[in-house]
Amino acid sequence: MVDVDWVERVGGLRQWASGPERAPHKPLLLLYALGRFQAAPESGLRYTDVEEDLAGLLREYGPPRRTSPGYPFHHLVSDGVWEVRTDSGADSPGPGVGRLRESGAVGRLVPELRTALDTDPALLSVLARTLLDLHFPPSLQEDIAADAGLDLEAADLARMTGVSGGAAERARVAVRRFVRDPGAARRLRARVLAAYGNRCAFCGFDGALGRRPVGLEAAHVHWWAYDGPDELSNALCLCSLHHKLFDKGVLGLDPGLRITVSARFSGAGAAARAQVRELAGRPVAAPEEAGAEPVAAPYARWHTTQVFRA
């Protein structure tokens, strides 16, 4: 049976906050820990062995500002899902990377959570999906899981085969308060694609199969996971490629709603030039629907400070 308490704990991780700034340090570490547990349930994570992996996850999926993997390694202990022990048997020496290295700090999921994961084949998938839905847009979730070492297909299969009847309903109730209503996502997509005339606001792609648009998606500018509203003024119709690049911080918006391209992007081929580099400075297409608002300045600013890789 899915333990509601573990879903509540994971869904309620305490994170550093300063206004609307992103701080997904703990969720990324916990996803990584779940991936390592999935591969080797009995192994601990020695800080010196995983520091490079954690730093890479934070660079790729954390906020643009510089950050330290020592922060979540130490502070996740306070959430009751993680423990740290040093070579001397003492608790975590603090978030400083030097002290974590020198003390031989090893982190692992707390014993009660490890037991719950061993007992319940559904729990790992529920916890991983909760973390991904709470902190990241759908376009990045598969990449994050892969980089964290999580086999989501295997975890989801375990959930589907290991939960049935009343247990399945308890799992849905436990997770519902943390994840987005699929119906809301479908409604927003329909509104956004209609407002933009079924065309990508960056490149103009307007593919369809019969009468149904294909390869077009509704992209939040200020992510839903960080309280971005389901409003037309916080959304763009983007093709799948440009949605992914927008959420990854390769593409952004300047105050005049012109497309910006990260200086960190590389790509020498003709396709990279045409589909990315040559977009720089191009105005974002405005909605075609009468009365539909373009992207509002506060949402564009949030994306610039929290996502775009300047």
TrEMBL record:
<dbReference type="InterPro" id="IPR003615">
    <property type="entry name" value="HNH_nuc"/>
</dbReference>
<feature type="domain" description="HNH nuclease">
    <location>
        <begin position="200"/>
        <end position="253"/>
    </location>
</feature>
<dbReference type="GO" id="GO:0004519">
    <property type="term" value="F:endonuclease activity"/>
</dbReference>
<feature type="domain" description="ScoMcrA-like DNA sulfur-binding">
    <location>
        <begin position="7"/>
        <end position="151"/>
    </location>
</feature>
<dbReference type="InterPro" id="IPR058813">
    <property type="entry name" value="DNA-SBD_ScoMcrA"/>
</dbReference>
<keyword id="KW-0255">Endonuclease</keyword>
<dbReference type="InterPro" id="IPR011396">
    <property type="entry name" value="PT_DNA_restrict"/>
</dbReference>
<dbReference type="Pfam" id="PF13391">
    <property type="entry name" value="HNH_2"/>
</dbReference>
<keyword id="KW-0540">Nuclease</keyword>
<dbReference type="Pfam" id="PF26340">
    <property type="entry name" value="DNA-SBD_ScoMcrA"/>
</dbReference>
<keyword id="KW-0378">Hydrolase</keyword>
<protein>
    <submittedName>
        <fullName>Putative restriction endonuclease</fullName>
    </submittedName>
</protein>
